[in-house]
Amino acid sequence: MNFRKHVLLPVLAATSLALAAPSAMAQNFRMALGDAAGGTQWELGTKFAELLEAKTDGKAKVALFPNSQLGDETDTVNNAAMGLLDFSVLAINNVTPFSPTVGLLTLPYVIQSADDAKTLTQGDIGKELTENTIRDAGVRIVGWAYSGFRVLTNSKRKVETLDDLKGLVIRVPRNEIMIASYQAWGINPTPMAWSETFTALQQRVVDGQDNPYITVHAMKFDEVQKYITNIRYIFSLEPLIISEQVFQNQPAAIQQAILDAGREATDHSFAYLQATEDSIRAELTAKGMEISDPADGEREWIEKATTAVWPKFYASIGGKEKLDAAMKALGR
To answer: For 82-108, how does the pLDDT look when each residue is reduced to its tens digit (9 = 90+)?
Structure first.
């Protein structure tokens, strides 16, 4: 008997079965969410999970872990890049440190409506930013949550002018563009991890923060904040990312199902925002929050932020021509 052949054939057969197994066996993915259940991150994630399971006849399932159970949002980018985490839904500003060109979407007052946000994320600019993120960060954007404008909340007083803002301690993410925006308005904000924010507000370590109405509601900020100002400096976008390593390791059919589920979940998120934001605003008012608009149509806020902030970040977003292209796409 040829002993070498006798031993190798079973080994090769077992190896072939192991390599074939992923396409036949169920794929159980994990998805990290920075926010609590009930917000737009949860809505996007649950819809995506539902769609992916349906499109793969149950071969691919996704378990959601809200409230930063799998780490801070920035941690999830690192973990996904290393293939240690499958999916994450997180604020776009927490992707920017890893792929600076997506900072285009957080330049103050570039996006002025939900339709603007949809145009930029789902058009050619969004496709280019996705490719950049794969290259720079090792993660792929496969969907978008549309959460609305980041309104300013605080526990001390009504804010309608930039003078009203002075003296308040405002939490912001560790994002250079957002920090620069507040500095342009005359205050130095306090960078802080998202997972620490509620406790900091509760203990009055900081007076306020900014986030969309839907996030304010989902995180129960009405328990620790009293006043809302309808600033519109950033439209909150929360991409659904997948580890590029994980994506490339999937069979072609699963890859396509992920992409298709991401597109459909993105459309669902846009419709969800349109359908719920007004009722959430009314509910927060009913819970005792006081809502006001910036004086003078927010003109002073806009002028100071765009004049001081935009030029500082031309290089990081890929040049002023990238901003010009975005404005052209928006018809401005």
So the answer is: 999 999 999 999 999 999 999 999 999
